[in-house]
Amino acid sequence: MKKKYMVISGILLISMLAGCGKAEDSPEPDALSTVPLESRSESGAMDGMPDEEEGQPGEGMPGGGSEGSSGGQTAISEGQPDGEAPEGSAQQTAKEPGSGKLQSSGTEFGFAALSDRYFEFSSGAGGWSTELRIDSDGKFKGNYHDSDMGDCGEDYPNGTMYHCSFKGQFGELEKVDDTTYKMKMVSLTIDEAPETEIADGIRWIASTANGLDGGEEFYLYLPGSVIADLPEEYRQWVGYFNLEDVSETTLPYYGLYNVNTGDGFSSYEYKEQSLSERIAMEISFAEESSAELEAKLQEDTTQADMNATSGELFQTWDNTLNIVWKLLESELDEEKMAALREEERQWIAGKEAAVKEAGQEYEGGSMQSMAESLKAAELTKARVHELAGYAE
Q1: Chain centroid to CA 131: how far?
Q2: What does the buried/exposed string (b/e) look like for 116-139 if buried means 16 or more CB atoms within 10 Å of the residue's CB?
Q3: Residue 343 host element (H or E)
Q4: What three-state secondary structure class fits 85?
Q5: Which one of 113, 138, 301, 357 is least enclosed by Cβ atoms within 10 Å?
Q6: What is the C-alpha separation between 36 and 43, in angstroms, rounded?
Q7: Distance (Å, rounded) from C-alpha 65 to C-alpha 59?
Q8: Which residues lie closer than 8 Å to 368 by C-beta, 6 or more apart?
Q9: What is the pLDDT of residues 329-351, one digit of tens each?
């Protein structure tokens, strides 16, 4: 589950790096405002919400849209007494890094090893996410996005998006042990954007870089780091909190840990794929999530739980539809997209009518929400598969 969320967010990163939250028109050199490193976003986790093109249908139209606990650890310079390791570091291990072939005995590790990786700090599917890429000189850039499709108004019927694009610089890497390096974040700048604006039926609210804000000292864990030796706060963000449920013993990817805030990033390698391959991958991820939620729905014991799970099921497919739409929008020509938008308007109208009809049988009752969510999930899943055909 964890890795799939990384890939989903990677696709969003590629779209949003070109212009997060309509900020692409701002000249890069002049549209920057330095953010104090001690600041931190108060935005909470919300559901995913996409962009829309001018003239696209209203509610439901695909397109555009945490805080970690405080670590409090202090990094200790190399030269620690034998048998001790700095706080925030993994214990030294003689094991060869699992997939970190760029790091071997006698070879100095550098930022260049990370140039084909994306790092992600995320709440999971449909939630908030911060993604970044580190260049060979330690410079980085990325984006943060969070959305609430239920937070609507007369002027923004398609929901609310919290967003920012950012860039910065990490300082020199300092080796802690064979699989751990530490570094300082020497700068973090947020691309300038209106504090609040409404575009394409979405309210865009400027935010900050969760996972980086408030950070000064960072640890970089190489593949092969012993998972049990990593800080608990880092492990809880990357899916290794309960060691009894973990089959792996060493980290299979590069990890980035904000010592000051306790936030943790995992990483993945991005490889170019065809449009149809990327869409098929998204559908595969959604099918897996959907199967898990359907199993959970059978185990829920209260109507409130069933309503919540069925809502998550719909949200899974709605998020996938939004991602697939974004992918199509980035590849298809304007003539095809214009025809597809008109088709989508008609589909949305039909879906809304069918969902309303499904809920009428239980109108005013506790099951109405579940009935409507299940019908919406069913129809949205089918629509995702239909849209996939446009990539062929």
Answers
A1: 7
A2: ebbbbbbbbbbbbbbbbbbeeebe
A3: helix 334-360
A4: coil
A5: 301
A6: 17
A7: 13
A8: 359, 362
A9: 888 898 999 999 999 999 999 99
Q: From CA 361, how far away is CA 43, in angstroms rounded? A: 38
If we measure between CA atoms, which residue out of 103, 96, 104, 109 comes closest to residue 138?
Answer: 109
Question: What distance in Å separates the CA atoms of residue 34 and residue 169, rounded to the nearest whole number?
Answer: 12
pTM of the model: 0.51
250 three-state secondary structure: strand
The per-residue pLDDT for range 53-85, each reduced to its tens digit, is 433 333 444 443 333 333 333 333 333 444 444
Instruction: Provide the terminal-to-terminal Cα distance of the chain, rounded to the nearest Å.
Output: 27
List the structure tokens of 73. 């650890």
Taking only Cα atoms into account, the Rg of the chain, rounded to an integer number of angstroms, comes to 22
Nearest to 42 by CA among 214, 219, 186, 233: 214
> What are the extents of the domains in the chain?
2-269, 275-391
How far is 225 from 61, CA to CA, in rounded Å? 44
Q: Would you say domain 275-391 falls under CATH 1.25.40?
A: no
Q: How confident is the model at residue 16 (pLDDT cuts 50, 70, 90)?
A: very low
Q: Residue 169: phi, psi to the nearest 5? A: -145, 130
Would you say 288 and 294 are in contact if contact means Cβ atoms under 8 Å apart? no
Instruction: Provide CB contacts within 8 A for 144, sequence distance 6+.
Output: 41, 128, 129, 130, 162, 163, 164, 166, 207, 208, 209, 210, 211
Pairwise CA distance, residues 164 & 146, whole Å: 10
User: Encoding tokens for residue 116?
Assistant: 């084909």
Q: CA-CA distances (angstroms) from residue 331 to 49, 320, 341, 354, 381? A: 20, 17, 14, 31, 22
